[in-house]
Structures are given as structure tokens and as C-alpha cells.
Amino acid sequence: MKVFLESHNINNPYTGFGQFNLHLLKGFKHCNDPEMKFVVHTPKKRFLKKLFGNFFEYKYYLGLRRYPRFAIRKKYDVWHSLNQNTKVEPKYDMPYVLTVHDINFVEEISGDINHPRNQLFIEKLKRAVAITYISEFAKKSTHEFFDVPKVPEYVIYNGNPIKELLDTTNYQPAKALNKKFLFTIGDFRERKNFHLLVEMMQYLKDYQLVIAGNDTRPYAEEVREATRTFKVEDQVIFAGRVDDLGKQYYFENCEALVFPSLREGFGLPPIEAMVFGKPVFLAKTTSLPEIGGEFAFYWDHFDPKKMATELEEGMKVYENDKDRYQTGLKVQAAKFDWNIAAKQYIDVYKSLK
Q1: Within 10 A of 263 (CB to CB), how many other CB atoms are there?
Q2: CB of 8 closer than 8 Å to CB of 39
Q3: Bridge partners of 283?
Q4: d(CA 174, CA 184)
Q5: Fewest CB atoms within 10 Å of the CB: 22, 32, 52, 61?
Q6: C-alpha count within 13 angstroms, C-beta hemisphere, residue 195
Q7: Burial track 98-131 (b if 16+ CB lie within 10 A, e otherwise)
Q8: How far apart are CA 112 and CA 109, in angstroms?
Q9: How buried is residue 176: exposed, middle or buried, by Cβ count under 10 Å (0-12/13-18/19+)?
Q10: Rounded CA separation 247/17 (Å)
Q11: pLDDT tens sequence across 304-339
């Protein structure tokens, strides 16, 4: 089978979509299924060839392919749209698999079913002969807002991006840390609730907070303003985008991951933190309880003072039963494996023969 992977979001491998694309490709290579041949649609052919050699075929991504006149004309045994946002579609009909990560756009852009963003998604649903979701929550919310066609549906959990522990001994963070610290990471968007974490820090004077992510977005200025408003500039560190080594350094050395995100189709940072046996404090919303499991701590409200109190109480619970919690967190993290996920996607492709 020849499978076309519409994976141009790998252009930035440190975003959520980029991580999904990159690690799924690694899973496909690990599976090395002799019945499968993959064509990867990407603007990063040179980067991927260094990683994978000629295991994949590569088709160079051009922005013009978003328009029908320049759409890809070649037919494949399966076309897999690796996320629900891509505007690149095949010129002709062929077996089409759609992966849904989230439908945040309904709340963040428009709830009007006739809005172009929603119509784009509806057209993708209509094309699909199979739909995969990265969590039960993603499936449930899609059915809540859209008329999903009666085609086979699958929930395939993402894997854990951390497959190898790196030596962080010589890593130097961009800004010095002089206290024990809490860590959070993600794209700077309002739904991440970073501003609430900043407000929380006024009640946690013994901690610093490290926020990693693309802090050039407009929301980042709102977060910076919060540090001034609540007089916690010396406690909050903006680490910017970090590579794998930096990310592992912060996970390895933090006291806990704090992740009060309002909307997550899956949420990779919690399972990354759990690899290190670190306590995770999550919003009790969307997919996060699925991912965190029974050893995570959950905020079911967003009052910063109460969040601080519950964090301190949770840390005491964790420290008083540290061995059991660390073991439980690591076991939970091990449930998520990209090689297993890749095999499940391959099974979906084969079901369409």
C-alpha cells in the first residue's frame, strides 16, 4: 500500500502538531511494515532525510497546493490528513483518513456552523472513510458539535515523545534559577492559562515558575503584564522555545509540572513529566484526566489562591508517599507509545484495502 501523509505541519517540530508528525514517522520507521510505503508531504525534506534516509518518499510542500487548481493529482491507496486544520486536499477521490486532535476552533474562532473554519472541517469529515481521534474527549466533542458520518472511528492515543533520557548535566538555562521551581510548557495562547499560574505565584514565594514556549505571541505580553501586576517578576522566568535537551532539563529538575490548560485534545507535557516521576497538576477538563490518570493532581476551579493551596497540599501528599507516586506516574507514562500508535494507524490503512 502506498500511503500519502499530509504532514506539512512538521515544519515546526516543536509545536504539538509538529511533535505528532515527527514521532509518528519515527513509529512508522520502527514498525518497518513490508506491506507499507509512505510518501511524506513536507517542507523539511533535508531535515527528514537526515533522520530517516530513504525509508520514506518525500513530496515537497508548496503553499499553492492549498488551492484546488494546484491540488495534488496523483492517486494513492490512502491519503491521511494528519490533522484537522490542514487545507491541502487531494484533487481526486481516494480512501481518506482524517485524524482529529481537537475542535478548539469552535470556541476560539466561531461556533457558527457556516463559518469558513467550520465548513472546512465539515468537508474533511465528508471526505473521510475512516476517522481517528487522539483521545476519547476529542471524539466526544466532535460528535457534540458536528454531524459525523457513519464511518469506522478509532481512538489512537499519542505516544510519549521522550524515548531516550538525555544527559542534562552541562545544560545551562537561559536565566539562572535560584529557588526550587515549577515548570510549564506550551504555545502562548489564552487557553493555556499561563496568566493564572503567574497570579498563583504571589502565594508561592518559595518557588519560581519557568514557562517555556513561543513567547512572541500577543498573549505573552498579557502574561508578562501579569508578572508586573502581581509583583512576581523575580519569580517568573520566560524560557522561550527549548529543544529536547532543555525540555528534559526542566522536567528533570522541576518540583512539578503545572498545566491548567482549558482545552487539550491530548496534552503531551503531562506524560513527559511523568516519565521523570514528577507530580503533575492539571486542569480537570477535556482530555487531561484521560492522560493524567489516578496519580495526577487536578484543579477543578481556577482561583489562583486556591490553586496555590491545593498545589502545596498535593506536594505534601506526593512527598509522603513518594515511591508509590513515582512508580504510578512512570507506569502511566509508559502506557503511551508511538510504536504502538503507528501500528494502530497501519491497521487502519490496511482495513481500507
Answers
A1: 23
A2: no
A3: 299
A4: 16
A5: 32
A6: 15
A7: bbbbbbbbbeeeeeeeeeeebeebeebbebbbbb
A8: 9
A9: exposed
A10: 17
A11: 999 999 999 999 999 999 999 999 999 999 999 999
Contact status, residue 164 vs residue 142, Cβ threshold 8 Å:
no
Instruction: Go through the chain and tell me how many residues it has.
Output: 353
CB of 57 closer than 8 Å to CB of 40: yes
> What is the rounded CA–CA span in Å between residue 345 and residue 328?
28
Query: Which residue's C-alpha cell is 493564572?
Result: 196
Distances (CA, A) of 146 to 76, 128, 138, 173, 327: 28, 14, 12, 45, 40
pLDDT of residue 187: 86
Contact 129, 90 (CB under 8 A): no
Average pLDDT over residues 340-347: 98
Asked if residue 245 lies in contact with residue 165, where contact means CB atoms within 8 angstroms, the answer is no
Q: Give the other-Cβ count within 10 Å of 52's Cβ.
A: 16
Which pTM value belongs to this model? 0.88
17: cell is 502538531
pLDDT in tens, 259-284: 999 988 888 899 999 999 999 999 99
Residue type, 58: Y
Q: What percent of the chain has pLDDT over 90?
A: 83
The span from the CA of 310 to the CA of 279, in Å, is: 13
